[in-house]
Amino acid sequence: MAHKMNFYSFIASFVCLELFLLVSFTSIFHSIENLLAAHLLTIVLIVTIISFFTGLIGFSGMKDWKSSMRSFTTVLLTLE
After folding, report:
1. Is the pLDDT of residue 1 over 70?
2. What is the pTM of this model?
3. CA trace torsion 28, 30, 35, 41 (10° rounding)
4. Helix, strand, coil percentages for the chain (3-state, nearest 5)
C-alpha cells in the first residue's frame, strides 16, 4: 500500500505544481473562483498538503533507489 501511495503522491505533486502555475498566472479560472466559497489557491494548498503527507508515508515503502528518489522528489516538489 505504501508503494501505491508513493506513486500517487508523486503524480499529485506534479498536478499540484501545474495547478498552482495555472491559477496564479492565468485568469482562466476567474469565473470558477466566483462560484466557489474558497479561493482556488486554498484548494491547491490543501491538495498539496495531502500529497506531502502521503509522500512522507511513501518513505516507508521504499524498496529500491527508484522509489526512494520518487519519495524524495515528491517531498521536495510539495515544499516549493
Report:
1. no
2. 0.78
3. 90
4. 85, 0, 15
